Amino acid sequence: MRRSSLRRLTVLGVGAAALAAAMTPAPAQQAPMQLGAPLPRPVAAPQPHPAAAPQPAEVGTVAKKPQALPTAAPKPAGPAVATAKTATPAPKPAAKPAAPAKVAAPKPDAAALRAANLARVTGQTTPVVHHHVFETPKPTACPGNPDAIGVSRVMKVDTEGGYYVGQTYQTRLPLEPKEVVLTFDDGPMQGRTERVLEALDKECTKASFFIVGQMAKAYPETLRKTAANGHTIAYHTMTHPLTMVKWPLDKAQANVRDGWQTVDQILYGKAGDAPATPFFRYPGLFNSRALNDWFNGLDMGVWAIDAAGNDWLKGYITLADGPNVMNRALAELEARQGGILLLHDIKDSSSSIVGPLLRELKKRGYRIVHIVPKTPPPKLISGPIRGVVPSIAETTVPVDQRSLDNFDAGKRLAQEAAGRSGKTSAAALPAYDAGRASPATARNAAMAAELPPPEPETTGAIPAARPKPEDGWFSSTAASFRGIASVVGLR
Domain count of the chain? Predict the structure, then answer.
């Protein structure tokens, strides 16, 4: 009885101990408790963990079939350690570092940007500092016109090392508000240029003429008259090639050089490797970095514009279109408060409105500035010289062969006024005796007699102003491309 009770107590104690052991988790790698015979140790349910690895089997334990888990590596076959593992929370991702506060970049200096652009276009790594001289002419009465606009200041332009001015180069002349520099391109042309000269004389003012060499050869006496009237003579190439900036450098240089040498020979009786007046304007205002490098060595002043009359476009060319040219010029000058004005003395429209335009500028408070080189050109010569006008055959090209690359604008311009056969414009400029003055040759007299009389100056009311001109480096660039096709004859 006592043994039986003792046996029962022993069994109950062992059972209680086993129950307690089953309910109390044991630390990992702890050996199983042994009371007489080995008892299997309760195993905690495995916890999924991405870094879980199989544990080495321990001798004397009961092997269990591994369970397939989607995220745990499979356990190797064979006996395995029975472990009770507590679940560990997944590590939280590290917090992103706070982005540094954005600091506003300093705005680039506008003057520095303009200087950098000018250096890039002109080849002047260091922009040249120029020292211009302004002079106020002595007041003199204008015969027959006490209200003439006259000349308010003379600007002696310093071009040493190269000088670039106008919207193409994002620069302006050091002018006061409402000061205007008058410039005319593409002449001379007999009849039309004289009309411009007469209007300038009546207003006792001065302008600058950018001369095409072929036009000078066709109308040398008109060129001489322009210079003798005190206007500045500058250069505009030999044949006005619009695609010159795409030519090989030596070919482009030859066209520019031929232009100034032709003009200088007519005016001064000699021509050299440097122009008498260091002023030049590109045909179409197109620009060449390679030519600019060359101009820098020649101390050349390269002129663009600030305002234009658009007198090369349809609706701005004929005598009846004069008011359109005048309104356009006034609108652009008002928008920019003065600057360099471009007109063409070979156009009926522009040549007919010079007088009314000057009177309207005077009424609006504008003043005229005459630009001259710091070093004056040589003394003008006199003596007979024969013009060489292109023939009709030279200026007539089938439509299918017309293009900007082979179009000779100088010949076409001369032909517009002459329309008569003559010696080739490519011939050498005829020699003349500078020491003997004589009347014009019979050929020139005959040419003058055949020309129609000059049209009357445009007068009357000015039509309503057109819309404000476009902004940009050249207000009429887009329109000029439309006009080029009509000049060549493609439209």
Answer: 1
